[in-house]
Amino acid sequence: MDHHARRLGVLLSPLLLLAACGPSHHTQRVLGDRLYTQLAPDIVAGKAVLQPLPGGDQVTLLDPSMFPNDIRALSDAYPDIRANVIEAMLDPSLMQVQITDTAPLREDLRDARVRNVAQYFVDNGLASTLVPPSQPPAAAAPAGLTITITLRCPDRHGGSGYGDGRSHPVCD
Questions:
Q1: What is the dihedral of CA 84, 86, 87, 91, to 10 degrees?
Q2: Which of 38, 63, 99, 105 could be disulfide-bonded to 88 (CB atoms 3.0-4.6 Å)?
């Protein structure tokens, strides 16, 4: 009997390891697919670049716009690439967003663009996702305004579901 149990353990252990490692990979793939789908017209038009990163994705906006936050921008009166990024995101509790700008502009203009995009996220209820940049964008990223979205997957031991009446999303 011991031999049978050991043999079963050897056969099942790769599946258990795959299950332990796989959850965030699927969630990361879903995030990447959603970003690509939402940004495809902008990518084709040369307005954006999407790059997968370990644990997330990086979107670089190549448009030299100041990304205004006027009434028209917030009322969806004209196409706004920032809205496409937000629409592609997953549950905000699973996301961290860093915004940096490496465009060949004066520093005050780059800072204004970062503030405008950050304010757009705040105005759309995503203030909780914003974190200060901890590192510059990936070396291969083109110059532009970069939005780095990383997964913030909760510990699996924290539970999931609606036990206390609130949603507890997890990476799967």
A1: 160
A2: 38
Q: What is the mean pLDDT of residues 87-92?
A: 93
| Bridge partner residues of 58 (DSSP) | 51, 148
- Of 84, 111, 104, nearest to 144 by C-alpha is 104
Instruction: Enumerate residues 6+ apart whose C-beta is below 8 A from 22.
Output: none
Polymer length of the chain: 172
Burial class (CB in 10 A: 0-12, 13-18, 19+), 168: middle
Q: Model confidence at 152, in pLDDT bands (50, 70, 90)?
A: confident
User: Which candidate, 73, 86, 62, places its Cα nearest to that of 116?
Assistant: 73
Q: Are 130 and 99 in contact (CB under 8 A)?
A: yes
